[in-house]
Amino acid sequence: MQKLVAVLIAIATVLISIYYQQHFVMKEDTKRRAWLTLLVNEEYVPGVLALVRSLKRAKSMYPLVVLLVSDQLSAEVQEMILNEGYLVRPVETIYPTQKPGNLAFQRLTHAWTKLH
Q: Of 26, 81, 98, 101, which has the most beta carbons under 10 Å away?
């Protein structure tokens, strides 16, 4: 099921990149623009790789920055992401409460981490 979600995310990313092609045109003020994605666990690695391939295929002028939740990823995956040449920023998980197990909706655990 989770692999299906990763594939669906990859497909949605491709469709969105096709739709928003005007954002891939070189502009004068590209210095402070980038595509950001959050990699929270190893199940999302195929989605990140699909995103990178889509951005390269579309000839994006903006770099991709991968926010890595390093305590959730193996050293091998972190090394693979670094070796691919992506800009990487390690981040810590942000929880809405002091007790991570007290979340009402476990599926939203990493939603707060996007606030980095």
A: 81
* Set 3, 56, 59, 114: catalytic member: 114
Measured CA to CA in angstroms, residue 61 lies from 20, 51, 76, 80 at distances of 13, 14, 28, 23
Q: Can you give the pLDDT at residue 72?
A: 81
Model pTM? 0.62
- Does 43 have pLDDT greater than 60? yes
Identify the DSSP state of 63: P
pLDDT of residue 103: 56
For residues 61 and 109, give the distance between their C-alpha atoms in angstroms, rounded to a whole number: 32
Least confidently predicted of 16-25, 67-76, 80-89: 16-25
Q: What residue ranges do the domains of the chain occupy?
A: 2-115
Would you call 114 a catalytic residue per the annotation?
yes
Residue 98 exposed, middle or buried by CB count within 10 Å (0-12, 13-18, 19+)? exposed
Q: Kind of pairing, strands 87-91 and 64-69?
A: parallel
